[in-house]
Amino acid sequence: MEGDFFEGLVIRSLSSGDLDAIVEIDRKVLGKVRQDFWKNKIELPNPRYPFSGLVAVLNGKVIGFILGEVSGWEFGIPETVGWISTIGVDPDYQHKGVARKLSEEFIKNLKSIGVSVVYTLVNWSDWDLLKFFHAMGFTRGGEMINLELKIG
Question: Of 10, 67, 106, 140, whose CA is between 20 and 30 Å from 117?
């Protein structure tokens, strides 16, 4: 059954026409509509790195997405470092390997442009996401730490 599912699954570059589908997936997952948030994210692609966003499409319907970027020496991090910013999968298609397929393609694309390390940030209490990234081969980073200052 899983093989049949993946035969119909297409991973392609994200386009501005995917906005409504991404907003809907986000609404299903988080319970709120964030049209402006996603519009700004999608309309600001980095032309140097065309693989900054991918979508998973099944039978013409966007069922998942991944967004990320490549560092441009922010915080002293070289351009050979990629970031996964967010992954979203329609709840009707979660736990079927969609996020894995999106991640694998995203990482393959980053590698093709010279990226050698990929980072992401995960909430320490989000065990499902931690397990997912661990299964993808991610480990706890050793050189950088997250610092926080609460101001409100």
Answer: 10
Q: How many residues does the chain have?
A: 152
Q: How far apart are CA 77 and CA 72, in angstroms?
A: 7
Residue 108 and residue 93: Cα distance in Å, rounded?
Answer: 23
Q: Which domain holds residue 24?
A: 2-135
pTM above 0.90, yes or no: no
Q: Is the pLDDT of residue 145 over 50?
A: yes
When divided into structural domains, the chain yields a total of: 1
- Terminal C-alpha separation, the chain: 50
Query: pLDDT for 1-54, tens place per residue?
Result: 455 767 889 999 998 899 999 999 999 999 999 999 888 888 755 554 455 799
